[in-house]
Amino acid sequence: MVALLLGFLSSLPSLRSRVALCGALAITFSWLGDLSLASPGDLGFLVGLGFFFCAHLSYLWLLSRLVPVRRPSRWAWMFVAWWAGFVFVLAAHTGPLLAPVAVYGAVLGAVAAAALGCNAWIASGALIFLASDSLLGLHMFLPDFDFWQVDFTIMLCYIVGQGLIAWGVGKAARLPRAVPLEADGARIDGSAPISADD
To answer: Can you give the residue ranges of every domain in the chain?
Structure first.
């Protein structure tokens, strides 16, 4: 995750931007979530879930910097269906953790839905990240949910997903007009304001 953070920051045209801040927060919170989940018991899980929740909020903020506000994607219903199915399947096995898992699932689905409005790298990465966390939830809570190299598959999807998001954000941030303007006309990626001729 440290290598991913450094690679992400090096891909940006400016480190003094909200894109850099949002992306750095998302990756850092994810890393802290990894460390917390390594602790045994429900407390480590809840702390890790909290860090990942913050990571996804940061990703939502990041995607809002790259994509102008617009009507929801026509495919957003898929993530509502995924969330409902995910909560339904896990409800009987999560006990008192159902509420935090359901809230986390909602923000995870929101990130995937928002990513559909971005470039293919970001959209693919968000979907793979969604698959990783879905597998993790099933593996943690469903009895006998297991397959060969399940932990490796979860981590591979997790790393590839975030790597694609970081790569896609870096490409988007380098494009002209890749991000919306602040109220004073300055680009949020830190470059000069757009002139009338730009």
So the answer is: 2-173
Locate 137 and state its tokens: 């939830």
pLDDT of the residue at 24:
95
pLDDT in tens, 94-143: 999 999 999 999 999 999 999 988 889 999 999 999 999 999 999 999 98
The predicted-structure confidence for 63-105, as pLDDT tens digits, reads as follows: 887 765 455 567 778 999 999 999 999 999 999 999 999 999 9
- Do the Cβ atoms of 57 and 25 come closer than 8 Å? no
Three-state SS string across the chain, please?
CHHHHHHHHHCCCCCCCHHHHHHHHHHHHHHHHHHHHCCCHHHHHHHHHHHHHHHHHHHHHHHHHHCCCCCCCCCHHHHHHHHHHHHHHHHHHHHHHHHHHHHHHHHHHHHHHHHCCCCHHHHHHHHHHHHHHHHHHHHHHCCCCCCCCHHHHHHHHHHHHHHHHHHHHHHHHCCCCCCCECCCCCECCCCCCCCCCC
Long-range contacts at 106-110 (CB < 8 A, ≥ 24 apart): 107/53, 107/56, 107/57, 107/60, 108/56, 108/133, 109/79, 109/80, 109/82, 109/83, 110/56, 110/60, 110/79
What mean pLDDT comes out for the span 44-71?
Answer: 84
